[in-house]
Each structure stands twice: as structure tokens, then as C-alpha cells.
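I would like you to help me understand the sequence and C-alpha cells below and explain how sequence relates to structure.
___
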Amino acid sequence: MDDVNKTLYIPLYGKAYVSQKGILLDDKKAEEIWAAEGFPLKGKSKSKWLAYYMGMRSAVFDQWVRKILSERSGVVVVHVGCGLDSRCCRVGTTGQLWYDVDFADVIEERKRYYAEDSDYHMLAGDVRVSDWLKHIPKTKEVIVVMEGVSMYLTFEEMKLFMTNLDAYFERISLLMDCYTVFAAKMTKYRNPINDVGVTQVYGIGDPLSLQCGSLHFFKEHSMTPTYLIDALRGGDKMIFKKLYAGHLSKKLYRLYEFKKN
């Protein structure tokens, strides 16, 4: 895998770490895969604080997907840039069409740990082009999960991705995390992804700039909600709240929801 694809091991480690501690996520699949992969992370990429961040981010995405699925039927879930993530297991796909999408070499690796069935499918595809969309039923409504992906796409590539979604689906709920422009500029100096060789990332200044057609910015979510910070133990809760959440977090990292009704 290239350096960008290797970044998938950072959230994998984080989810395995918090799951082993019994906080934020119950993710036995992440524990299993991390133990088997043995990828040599180093430096900031193995920080417990980053692991907490990865666990919280995934928990927020999970809750968002569950909420929409509980309210509506016949919705298809599309997780782009899925990496080795086990959201399909944590949320469940029984009776629910679910497509995990990533580069071909990532999907090849993923198939060592996950099996397709009538509900769950894995697709090799590049979100910068639209050919993978034709393998997904042209359903009336889709949930699009875009976790840890937008920062590797230029603004033009992100805009094209949004345009392709808008053209293909009648109704869309999209949740995506992104770097701010400031965070993207700081990446070459302080980002844990530097530890796997990545130095070029991109930030989003204004979510309204990504709107296209009928796909519009809906609202911002918290990446570090209080109820998840409260799940941390001992002094970690106080330190995380002071140093890694709130104003500082928003200066670097945002979580945006887009909709097409």
C-alpha cells in the first residue's frame, strides 16, 4: 500500500486500544486485526490521546448511522475510504444493504478479515472518479460515511465527489470529518500521519463551498461530545478535555453533515 493507504493503521490502532480498555468502542474486530497485522506505528501515531480521539470519532459516526437507520427503512449505507474499519460489524448489516469502498489494495487486504453476503459488499474504487457508483443500486436514499478521507483530497476532488453523489442519489445524508485550513498547513510539522510518510493534506475553510446541486450543508457535529469525554478514566478525562477538546479541537478539526432531501 502507498503512504496514504497506510494511514488506515492509525485509526485501527486507536480503536483496538480503546476497545481493549473497555471504553468508547466495543470493537473486537479491530483488536483482532491489529494483533494480526503488527504494523510498526511509531511516535505520535501511537499516542493514547490520539487513540482516544480515533475512538470518539468512530463512536460519533456510529451513533449518527444508527440514528438514521432507526428512523428510516430501505436506506443503503456507503462507507467510502473504509480501510479496515469494522463499522459494518459494530452497527450491523442484517437486512441492510451496506457497501464498503476503498482502493483495490485496501479491499484486497480487507477481504482477509471480512466476508461478503447478500447484505454486505466490498467495492474497489477511487472516490476521485465515479465508476464505482454504478455497482451500487440507484436507491432513493443513501447514507454516506466519509471518515478520515477528505483531508487527502483537493478541494476540486472533493467538489467532484459531492457532484457525483448529487447526480446519482435522490436523497443523501453525508457525514464527513475534515481538517481546517490551519490544520492542513501545520500538518508537515505536527501531524501523526507524518509517521507513515504523509505530508500533503488539505483543509476545508467553509463547508458551504462544497455545496452542489441539491446537496447542501446541514449542520456541524461535535467530534468530542461531553458524554464520550466522560467515558475516559482518572486524570485522562481532565487532560483530554483541557488539551484535546473544545476550542483547540475546532481550530484543527471539524465534523460536517450534508443533506439532499
